[in-house]
Design goal:
Blueprint (H helix, E strand, L loop, with lengths): L6 E5 L3 H11 L4 E5 L2 H11 L3 E5 L7 H11 L5 E6 L3 H9 L4 E5 L3 H19 L2 E3 L12 E3 L4 H14 L5 E4 L6 H10 L8 E5 L5 H9 L16 H4 L4 E5 L6 H13 L1 E2 L8 E2 L3 E6 L3 H6 L5 H7 L3 E3 L10 H16 L5 E2 L1 H9 L5 H15 L4 E2 L15 H18 L7 H16 L4 H8 L3 H10 L10
Helix pairs in contact: 2-3, 6-7, 13-15, 17-18, 18-19
The structure holds adenosine-5'-triphosphate and magnesium ion (MG).
Amino acid sequence: MADVKAKILIVDDETNIHYSFEKILGSDYDIASAQTAEDGLLKLEKLHPDVVVMDIKMPGMNGLEALKRMRDIDGRVPVVMMTAHGSMDTAIKAMKYGAFEYLLKPFDIDRMREVIQKAFQSSQLMRRSVRVASEKGEKTDISGDMIVGTSEAMQEVYKLIGQVAAQDVTVLIRGDSGTGKELVARAIYHHSRRAKAPFLEVNCAALPENLLESELFGYEKGAFTGATERRIGKFEQVDGGTLFLDEIGEMSLVTQAKILRVIQYGEFNRVGGNTVIRNNVRLLAATNRNLEEMIKKGEFREDLYYRLNVITVPLPELQERKEDIPQLIEYFLARYGKDTGRSIQGVDKKAMKKLMDYAWPGNVRQLENCIRRAMVLAKGVTITAEDLELEAVSEEALLPRQNEDDALDAIIDQIVQGSSQTQLWPEMEKRLIEKVLVKTRGNQVQAARVLGIHRNTLRNRIDRYGLNALISGG
Ligand SMILES: Nc1ncnc2c1ncn2[C@@H]1O[C@H](COP(=O)(O)OP(=O)(O)OP(=O)(O)O)[C@@H](O)[C@H]1O
Ligand SMILES: [Mg+2]
């Protein structure tokens, strides 16, 4: 969202570093500087930066000590540590103390941008409060995120959130795509006793199996080819806080077993390690999959299911709560009025009927996108039926997806059988970016938004995959 510029606090005793950050990131971010750790701590409290980037080696208080204190002041600010090559041990220690990530000096600028962008996104997840619409009967307020809807089905959801938030238990959030699972996870976090501690999210569908394991549990040096240093995983990093496992239906059986152990005994090993690591993390999980069916097919562990299913928050489909549509529309109009610079007052009668009659297979996300697009297309201050682009929902709409699926299956089979040397993730990423660039006619800003990645990341991938021919000039 193009709100105000994100604020980054750079803590380093070297003037050069401040100069480089200003030069590289100054146009995208609002940059504040501190020359000592002590000053960094003061500025953290005074300026409320979104992200801190801090050197480890500084005269006076060092970066590790400052990191610990920052975590006590506000555990929600991601701290990226900088360190010279050759001091990996300290960098790894910093991760154990909850640093968001580390960067090795001298910087790889693309990586630095990517890390800072990720840290900022993570910061947004923790910072942007999520309120429940029925709280104190509030009207639309766009300063944070809001769960909108007063239907009976949503009242049930609010009741559940209220009941589970303050208890330190694992919660399973279930619902179709776009029904608000992530929003609910963040609402639970915000209303929990861990609200000032960090919240990290891992999307289990976004990573291939072995990378997911590493991401969650970390790994030891030498655990596999390429594991040149120990790596701290999210479970360790978020100690004391909340971990949101999105799309747990996509986890492999091996990873499922490891998660079960964490829930049962609060312990795990890093990949390739023998040391048992104990910690204290609250787990929130979400899925749109039919876990019961998956159990029958042997794809999901029954014992893990029972552990997760103790407290479930089921989210209704939008179709089951159509009476909430007008309120949702009002909310999105207010919310995106700022972004699009267009003040749209409402939707006319015919448009409203169209919106109420539609089936919304993509649920609230689809409604949100539809309204956002209509706001751009609208000629006057009211959205008309012509401004709404709603695809007919038919059996056929599902067909291309089937073909896509088959194509994917074929690639996976080739790799599994060893007849192809490609790696799945880069291949998928490339195809996806290609598709989006074609659809957006090479508009990088739009493509980055569609893909949900920073435009610098997109630029980097375009170079990597040689897709320069697809981007539009200017
Ligand atoms: N009740 C709601 N009130 C306001 N906005 C909502 C509501 N539910 C969902 N949204 C918005 O719809 C979009 C999708 O929500 P979210 O990402 O939480 O869905 P999800 O269930 O996690 O979807 P997916 O399964 O596709 O990941 C977000 O932009 C979110 O802010
Ligand atoms: Mg989601």
